[in-house]
Specification:
The protein is mainly alpha-helical. α1 packs across α4 and α1 packs antiparallel against α5. The chain is elongated and about 120 Å long. The two termini are 51 Å apart. Helix content is 67%, strand content 4%. β1 and β2 form a beta hairpin.
C-alpha cells in the first residue's frame, strides 16, 4: 500500500501505541504476580515461628504445602515461595527488603493501571521514548542539499576519456571501436 507521509506517521504512532500498551500490560501482570508472592512472604514472616514449626512437623513437602494453604490461606504460588525461601531470608534486613520491594511493586502497579486507563499517558511515553532516541542517536546531516544547479554542462564533461579507434567506410559511415576489443 502506498501511503502519504501523514498516513505513514499515523500508522507508526498507532504501532507505537500498541507496543507501549502491550508492554505495560505485560509489566503490570509481572508486577502483580511478584506483589502476590511478596504479600505471602510478608505474611509468612509475621508468623514465621509458627510456620517453621508447621514445616518441621510435616512429613513431606506436599503435606507442608497443604497445611500452609489450609491454615494460613496462602495461594499455591505463595505456599511454594514460602517453602522455597532460604533461612537467610529470615533476617531483619531481608524482611525490610521484602517490605520495600512490596511497596515498590504496589506503586508500579498503580502507575501501570493509570497508563492502561489513560491514552494520553501512552502518547507521553511515546514522546519521551522518541526524544530519548533522538538524543542518543541523532546527529547532524552529513550531506549537503544545494538548490542551485549549474545552468549548462559542457559536452567535454560528458565524454569519457579513453582510447578509441574510429573507422570511416567508403560509403561515409563512421564507427567508434574500443581498441581492447580487437
Amino acid at each position: 500500500q502506498i501511503l502519504s507521509l501523514k498516513d505513514l506517521l499515523v500508522e507508526y504512532i498507532n504501532h507505537r501505541k500498541n507496543i507501549v500498551y502491550r508492554r505495560t500490560q505485560f509489566l503490570f501482570k509481572k508486577a502483580e504476580e511478584r506483589a502476590h508472592i511478596l504479600e505471602g512472604l510478608s505474611k509468612a514472616l509475621s508468623h514465621i515461628d509458627e510456620i517453621i514449626q508447621l514445616i518441621k512437623k510435616s512429613e513431606s513437602r506436599e503435606e507442608a504445602f497443604n497445611k500452609l494453604r489450609s491454615k494460613y490461606k496462602f495461594s499455591d504460588i505463595q505456599a511454594n515461595a514460602i517453602l522455597d525461601m532460604k533461612l537467610s531470608n529470615l533476617a531483619k534486613l531481608e524482611r525490610d527488603k521484602i517490605n520495600a520491594e512490596l511497596k515498590e511493586k504496589i506503586n508500579l502497579i498503580k502507575e501501570y493501571q493509570l497508563i492502561l486507563k489513560e491514552p494520553k499517558k501512552i502518547l507521553n511515553i511515546i514522546k519521551e521514548e522518541t526524544s530519548y532516541l533522538k538524543n542518543k542517536y541523532g546527529d547532524k546531516r552529513r550531506t549537503k542539499i544545494e538548490t542551485n544547479l549549474p545552468e549548462s554542462i559542457p559536452d567535454e564533461d560528458l565524454i569519457i576519456d579513453q582510447p578509441t579507434l574510429i573507422t570511416l567506410s567508403a560509403k561515409g559511415y563512421i564507427k567508434r571501436i574500443d581498441p581492447n576489443s580487437i
